[in-house]
Amino acid sequence: MTIWSVFPASTKYFEPSQASSMVNYIVDDLNALLERLEKEGVRIGLKRQDESYGRFARIYDPDGNKIELWQPLR
């Protein structure tokens, strides 16, 4: 499934990245994945979000672009 969400040009949502978009991956076990990525040296954002529809965390690619990880609630 592919979902697009359009943000206003003035959004600060993608900061600190200068990118105008962001990839969001659905994951099965957010904590386990973050633990594995940390061991591999991936930069992980400090902020976590727990929403009524799932849990979120952000990581960064080598260029500093933000990538969002989403574990939906089941």
Strand content: 35-45%
Strand order of the largest sheet: 1-4-3-2
* The CATH H-level homologous superfamily of the domain at 23-72: 2,3-Dihydroxybiphenyl 1,2-Dioxygenase, domain 1
Fraction of residues in helix: 10-25%
How is the main sheet built?
Answer: 4 strands, mixed
The CATH topology name of the domain at 23-72 reads: 2,3-Dihydroxybiphenyl 1,2-Dioxygenase, domain 1
- Overall geometry comes to globular
Class of the domain at 23-72 in CATH?
Alpha Beta
Radius of gyration: 13 Å
Number of helices: 1
Mean pLDDT, as a whole number?
88
Order of helices and strands: EHEEE
Helix- and strand-based class? mainly beta
CATH architecture of the domain at 23-72: Roll
* DSSP, total strands: 4
- State the separation between the terminal residues, measured CA to CA: 17 Å
Uncertain spans: none
Describe this structure in words.
There is one protein chain. With 74 residues, the chain is mainly β. The protein has a domain at 23-72: 2,3-Dihydroxybiphenyl 1,2-Dioxygenase, domain 1. It is built from one helix and four strands. The protein has a four-stranded mixed beta sheet, with helices on one face. A hairpin with a 2-residue loop joins strand 2 (43-51) and strand 3 (54-60). The chain is globular. The model has no long low-confidence stretch (mean pLDDT 88).
